[in-house]
Amino acid sequence: MKAKTLSLPLLMIFFFFHLSPSTSKRIFNNPSVFSSSASLSSRNAERLIKSFNLTPMHDVNLIPKGSPDAPRLFESQIDFPATIGAQNASGGPSVQEFGHYAGYYTLPRSKSAKMFYFFFESRNNSTDPVVIWLSGGPGCSSSVALFYENGPFTISEDLSLSRNEFGWDKVSNIIYVDQPVGTGFSYTSDISDLRHDETGVSNDLYDFLQAFFKEHPKFAKNDFYITGESYAGHYIPALASRIHSGNKKKEGILINLKGFAIGNGLTNPEIQYAAYGDYALDMKIISESDHESLKQDYVECQSFIKKCNLDGGLDCDSAYETCNNIFGQIMSKIVGKNYYDIRKKCVGSLCYDFSKMEKFLNQENVRKALGVGDIEFVSCSTTVYDEMRGDWMHNLEVKIPALVEDGINLLVYAGEYDLICNWLGNSRWVDQMSWSGQKNFGSAKTVPFLVDGKEAGLMKSYGSLTFLKVHDAGHMVPMDQPKASLQMLQNWMQGRLNTSTVPRVGL
């Protein structure tokens, strides 16, 4: 059985894309041809796959209907060390002492979709909070975070696994989900199961969690947190709102939602696209005249975003094209720079090399251990990305005030050197969010976030809301600052992040 193969090899990892000067509508007063949003996203996808050294064999896991060898596994416990060769590099407790699971749950609001996930029990205590991690794209597998950011293991050059000293499973029971359907190992045999908006995405995730807690009832009463980064700035508020609504209506198993955390996310595009020029100017990427030019371009961008959020449809495609021209113009000034971390240059076509993840997960013995049958791993899916393109410019911040008003905690954090979802745009939408604590949050003191007695970031808090700018980090904070990110998660879940004297986590 093979997944559907398209002519375009992939999409981008986590979130955005690289616009070359030739794709921009105007490179600082130089007119050029502006392409359609569909062809624009396809070209960006091709560039991105080269940047991250990902080469999925298939574009989306869309299998033939009635495939006799489709995976039927509900869930099984996996023994990574025995089947794959994991090493206990940190010298801590044996890997075998902890529960590792992988499997599929059927999505009841679909025709034939199966959602794949990994679940790792806490190394500390099964009563620790349950955390779900969502990667972005849209259309990228959460396995990227599992193996390169905050999972229990890291992949060595020989494709063996070693313990991640700062994995988030040290303080939580953590779930990594391949979603929306079609990416990673998740699959369907009906193209109508591919999602187009946050309603479809959040319903699938809610149904997945209902199935998960039914299968794992001992975790159902644990505190529950939603985390993720990049385009998950859309997914996370949508899922939090869906869970909160389901709990209030007593739809199924009550999910003990305590908080949600957005890392370098896209949440309120109208505010965040306005910040591109300001961030680029502050970081000395563009000149004052460039900045003034971008301000003029933003007028049209803002107009389309407003229409998109009001009427949807073609206005969302127009917003996608017009607004992403702003990012393209900035990138034309720093060709070869890593827009996920502007301190760094891309080496050749590679800004990051995540190819070991693909090789590892597509090994026959690994697929057998995971119970995925002949399904091959799709690291990122262009098809899923294109299906979700109309969702891009929607404002998901509007779902948040009702949540924080009800005492559900929100942490927004951002690495200071990320251009694509920069900290400035994220801090602005947080500041401008209308809720009862807005004024007090705005006047709250900025205090240091301390790790080992040293300042690792700057934050401010009021009530249920915290914003944290992380020093010496780009787009992927848990990869760039693993120890700080683990301490951030633990202290936040324990209600200790919003103080100027942050206790040190025992690692």
From TrEMBL:
Q: Record's GO cellular component, any one? A: extracellular region
* GO BP term, example: proteolysis
Q: Name one Pfam family in it.
A: Peptidase_S10
* Membrane-traversing stretches: none
> What sort of enzyme, by top EC class, is this?
hydrolase
Q: What is its EC number?
A: 3.4.16.-
Task: Give the signal peptide, or none.
Answer: 1-24
Designated name of the protein: Carboxypeptidase
